[in-house]
């Protein structure tokens, strides 16, 4: 039986756990869906530079010809124009943690896909960027993400410190609609209680076992590895 590589945290949280079968369908949609012809690593890294203190959008959008010729360059530029200004006018100290993943189920580990952390006015914050154009994570999904980030990452890594999350979402809220932008923090999220999160994760783990038991061989998703983004694989 082929052991599946666990999906990233966002896919774990957004899975439909009404039943094991609905969770199977959600996860197969992830594994068997198209990889796409490009990624948003440029947008993520440039946004990180903005939080590091580069607050000039014109400079952030500059790129050498070799970068401009890459597939998806225009879409990355669109994201940068929306995400980077959130850092402007603020004093933020950016830092990374070494690679680690979120454990759930029996020996399964989901990647956090966290590009960076920062400190602002004595508060340690995890930054998560949602760069896809189509509708992806709902407010309810973000409540699940925040439950994991706040309890299993932030509270453990920064015990005794003031913590928060900064979720920057620049996707459309309706299919086929234009990009919008929103920023979410713990103060405006309905964070999942521990029992709801545990039940959800149990169903996801059961669904992964069911997929493996069927002998289905979904495509292996390519991790987004980058030395500058240690928690982003």
The number of domains:
1
**Uncertain segments of ≥5 residues (pLDDT<50)?**
none
What percent strand?
15-25%
Give the termini separation: 24 Å
- Class by SSE composition: alpha+beta
- Overall shape: it is globular
Describe this structure in words.
The chain is 38% helix and 15% strand. It has 233 residues and is an alpha+beta fold. It has one domain. It has a 5-stranded mixed β-sheet with strand order 1-4-5-6-7, with helices on both faces. The protein has a two-stranded antiparallel ribbon with strand order 2-3. The longest helix has 20 residues. It is globular, with a radius of gyration of 18 Å. The chain starts with 8 loop residues before the first helix and ends in a 20-residue tail after the last helix.
Structural features:
8 helices; globular; alpha+beta; 38% helix; 233 residues; two-stranded antiparallel sheet; single chain; five-stranded mixed sheet
Describe the protein's topology.
Layout: H1 9-14, H2 20-32, H3 41-51, H4 57-61, H5 65-68, H6 73-83, E1 93-95, E2 101-104, E3 108-111, E4 116-120, E5 123-130, H7 139-157, E6 162-169, E7 182-184, H8 194-213
Parallel strand pairs: 5-6
Antiparallel strand pairs: 1-4, 2-3, 4-5, 6-7
Helix pairs in contact: 2-8, 3-6
């Amino acid at each position: 039986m082929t052991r599946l590589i666990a999906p990233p945290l966002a896919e774990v949280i957004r899975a439909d756990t009404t039943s094991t079968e609905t969770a199977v369908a959600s996860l197969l949609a992830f594994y068997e869906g198209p990889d796409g012809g490009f990624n948003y690593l440029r947008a993520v890294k440039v946004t990180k530079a903005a939080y590091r203190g580069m607050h000039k959008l014109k400079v952030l959008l500059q790129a050498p010809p070799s970068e401009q010729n890459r597939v998806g360059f225009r879409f990355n530029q669109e994201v940068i124009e929306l995400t980077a200004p959130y850092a402007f006018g603020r004093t933020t100290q950016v830092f990374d943690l070494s690679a680690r993943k979120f454990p759930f189920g029996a020996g399964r580990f989901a990647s956090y896909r966290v590009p960076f952390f920062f400190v602002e006015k004595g508060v340690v914050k995890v930054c998560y960027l949602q760069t896809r154009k189509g509708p992806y994570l709902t407010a309810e999904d973000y409540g699940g993400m925040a439950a994991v980030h706040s309890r299993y990452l932030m509270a453990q890594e920064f015990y005794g410190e003031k913590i928060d999350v900064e979720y920057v979402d620049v996707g459309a809220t309706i299919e086929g609609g234009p990009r919008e932008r929103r920023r979410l923090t713990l103060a405006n999220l309905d964070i999942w209680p521990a029992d709801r999160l545990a039940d959800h994760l149990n169903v996801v783990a059961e669904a992964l076992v069911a997929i493996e038991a069927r002998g289905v061989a979904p495509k292996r998703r390519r991790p987004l590895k980058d030395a500058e983004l240690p928690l982003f694989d």
